[in-house]
Amino acid sequence: MILRHTEAKARAEMAHALMSIARGFGLRVLIAGDPALAEAVGAVGLHLPEARAGEAAHWRALRPSWLITAAAHSLRALNVANRAGADAALLAPVFATASHPGREPLGALRARIMAAHTTLPVYALGGINANTIARLKDAPFAGIAAIEGVLAD
């Protein structure tokens, strides 16, 4: 699970609550963009926004055991994350998504091509749900990441 929230106080409160729940279910938690909080709550790693993907090497040197992922919205961003030593990237948005209304999705074909042109494990994100997942069948993704797909209507 990746905890991503922009307000520091709420993010910290959510992180502490999420860690309790995650431990009970044997889930691993990464904290987005806040290495100090990741360390403080005992998260297994850090998720970096695309603009900070180049920091992966820095955090790898400081925390070799951490799982480090990065957001990516292009092949160039996937390559930056790969060169910086990220463990994986979340490529988004593959499909139109309610969390980023108006943002042009990559589309299944373009996202497949990007994932095929990197050695970095890539997870598809954005608009992943029961209706869209079939369009990714046999795609070269390491997996999927979802928000909409796990929320109840």
Written overview of the protein:
The protein has 153 residues and is α/β, with parallel strands linked by helices. The protein folds into two domains: 1-43, no CATH class; 49-150, Alpha-Beta Barrel (TIM Barrel), CATH 3.20.20.70. Helices cover 33% and strands 16% of the residues. The chain contains five helices and seven strands. The protein has a seven-stranded parallel sheet with strand order 1-2-3-4-5-6-7.
Helix content: 25-40%
Which regions contain 5 or more consecutive residues with pLDDT less than 50? none
* Radius of gyration, in angstroms, nearest whole number: 15 Å
What is the CATH first-level class name of the largest domain? Alpha Beta
CATH architecture of the largest domain: Alpha-Beta Barrel
Order of helices and strands: EHEHEHEHEHEE
What separation lies between the terminal Cα atoms? 20 Å
CATH superfamily of the largest domain: Aldolase class I
Q: Give the neighbour order of strands across the main sheet.
A: 1-2-3-4-5-6-7
Structural class: alpha/beta
What CATH calls the topology of the largest domain is: TIM Barrel
The biggest beta sheet, please?
Answer: 7 strands, parallel
Shape: globular
Provide the number of structural domains: 2
List the helices and strands and how they pair.
Layout: E1 2-3, H1 8-25, E2 30-32, H2 35-41, E3 45-48, H3 56-62, E4 67-72, H4 75-84, E5 88-91, H5 108-116, E6 122-124, E7 143-144
